[in-house]
Amino acid sequence: MWSLVAKALLAGAMIAAIAEIGKRLPAMAALVASLPLVSVLGMVFLWHARPDAENMAVHAEATFWYVLPSLPMFLVIPFLLRTGVNFWLALLLGCLLTVGLYLGMTALAPRLGTRL
């Protein structure tokens, strides 16, 4: 139980730090947010819970393939905002695009011989 609380506090602290940095330096906050800190910490926690090389390899590879469909959101949202779309609608549309692309990746991955 305490391990879960510690993990949640660490993740929350990272998000809060990004938000605070973003108030003054939005590009720097973006750089920090783009670092795969959550992925690395997730792998450390997963390895601690289950030190299995094949399991970790599947996890790391699947993370790569799931990051790809999330990337267009980070171009669509700024485009929508700059064309006058409300923030919440732009965020919703970006998230819906990402869900659609995740579903597409999930369907396409087996055809590419990739385990997700």
List the helices and strands and how they pair.
Layout: H1 2-24, H2 26-34, H3 37-49, H4 53-67, H5 73-82, H6 87-108
Helix pairs in contact: 1-2, 3-4, 5-6
The dominant shape is flat
Largest sheet: none
- As a whole number of angstroms, the C-alpha radius of gyration is 17 Å
The span between the termini is: 28 Å
> How much strand?
under 5%
Q: From N to C, what is the helix and strand string? A: HHHHHH
What ranges have pLDDT less than 50 throughout 5 or more consecutive residues? none
Mean pLDDT: 92
Q: What structural category arises from helix and sheet content? A: mainly alpha
Question: Helix count, per DSSP?
Answer: 6
Number of strands: 0
Which range best describes the helical content: under 10%, 10-25%, 25-40%, 40-55%, 55-70% or over 70%? Answer: over 70%
Tag the structure with descriptive keywords.
116 residues, mainly alpha
